[in-house]
Design goal:
Blueprint: H1 18-48, H2 51-61, H3 64-91, H4 98-124
Helix pairs in contact: 1-2, 1-3, 3-4
Length: 125
């Protein structure tokens, strides 16, 4: 008699944990950083092409929607950086205890928020 084998836990069954959420978010921020790098390249190219193209680029960047994208890019940069440092500690064999994982995950998110806020404060004020 062939009984169907049980399926492995899926997203509807599996309860997300901070480790899985931060891991997925690390991958997503890496993807967004690679996509957002096109904005930096466009900025550099507009700088090299003269004042007219730079003024045109800046008129596009002054849009509120693009400002939100730049804000998200800054947060992704700091989150990915902070979580990368966390991974370096893990590569050294440190911080694998469950309590350390939760603490370091909270520090990564808090650090990304603080660094993004400070950067945007110094840029806009």
């Amino acid at each position: 008699m062939n009984r169907p084998r049980p399926l492995s836990p899926h997203l509807q069954i599996y309860k997300p944990q901070i480790t899985s959420i931060l891991s997925i978010f690390h991958r997503l921020t890496g993807i967004s950083l690679s996509i957002g790098s096109f904005i930096i390249v466009a900025w550099i190219v507009s700088l090299s092409m003269g004042i007219e193209s730079y003024s045109y680029f800046m008129s596009i960047v002054d849009n509120w929607f693009v400002q939100i994208i730049i804000f998200g890019f800054a947060f992704a940069l700091f989150y990915h950086f902070s979580n990368g440092i966390r991974h370096l500690f893990w590569d050294a064999g440190l911080g694998f205890e469950l309590k350390s994982v939760y603490i370091s995950g909270s520090i990564v998110v808090l650090n990304a928020i603080i660094l993004t806020t400070l950067t945007l404060y110094f840029v806009y004020f």
